[in-house]
Amino acid sequence: MSTTFQLDTATSRANPTPQPMRRLTVPKIRQRKTDGVTEEPLVMLTAYTARQAQLLDEHCDLLLVGDSLAQVIYGLPSTIPVTLDMMANHAAAVVRGSYHAVVIVDMPFGSYEASPQQAFESAAGLLKASGAAGVKLEGGAAMAETVAFLTQRGIPVMGHVGLTPQAVNVLGGYAARGRDDAEAGKIVSDAKALDEAGAFAVVVEGVVEPIAIEVTQALSCPTIGIGASAKCDGQVLVCDDMLGMFDRVPRFVKRYEELAAIISKAAASYAADVRSRAFPGEDQTYQPK
Question: If you write DSSP's letter for every residue of 145-177 in order, what string do you get?
Fold first, then answer.
């Protein structure tokens, strides 16, 4: 979704971002993998707000409005309680804050599993409400019919195999997948089914590295790894994990900054200034002329 708003640099507020160039498209992302090879890996991060999108956009090929917002924004114990309205509102903010990256939005648990028709209604509503370019859904061969149904009706779909957080109650936790031959074989066949159904990319999460490599080599569409392998066609991380906003560091995360400590330090300095009446000072108050 383009915008004609101009960025007002006189305010500290996150206004809609102007569009100085054409946004990347789903076909362009799909075409990055040619004859089984992606020369330049795809870069994807999660984003949930307009300001986050402004800061991440120029560095990313894709921004994922992930249902991980359950934990990082709302403090929920899992992604299960996330609603379509929650996803639509955050996706709209990310679209407004970006101009370059392809914005993809997660379909929340319960919004697509019942039937392809249910999935279409949910996905169409998400795209209409947000302006995002496509949706992501979890599941393998069982979702292939749904992926085909959506793509044939103009809705780009990113698949997701391996560790699928929405199925945490069935999986019994967040442990890496594909450690036995049966499960490894299913992950590969699931990914192939999504590729053949028309998914433009497939997230491969939390699987042992040889299986991630096998999936990447087997698919014609790009794979995007998270806890998978550097040999995937791209990578994604939850932005808040990468920036060090939480104490827990999953094995597959590399922390590029420690923002939690920086924010805590700034808040402590502010609190000290308020309590000592050092803030606000003359520079922050309005004096008579």
Answer: HHHHHHHTTT--EEEEEES-GGGHHHHTSS--B
Q: What is the pTM of this model?
A: 0.91
pLDDT tens per residue across span 63-80: 999 999 999 999 999 999
Which residues, at least 6 apart from 216, have a Cβ–Cβ distance to it below 8 Å? Answer: 204, 223, 225, 229, 231, 232, 233
Match 């402590």 to its residue by tokens. Answer: 268
Rg, C-alpha atoms of the chain: 21
Contact (CB, 8 A) for 153 and 120:
yes
State the catalytic residues: 205
29-62 pLDDT tens trace = 999 999 999 999 999 999 999 999 999 999 999 9
Rounded (5°) CA angle 14-20-26? 95
Bridge-partner residues for 103, per DSSP? 63
The amino acid at 227: G
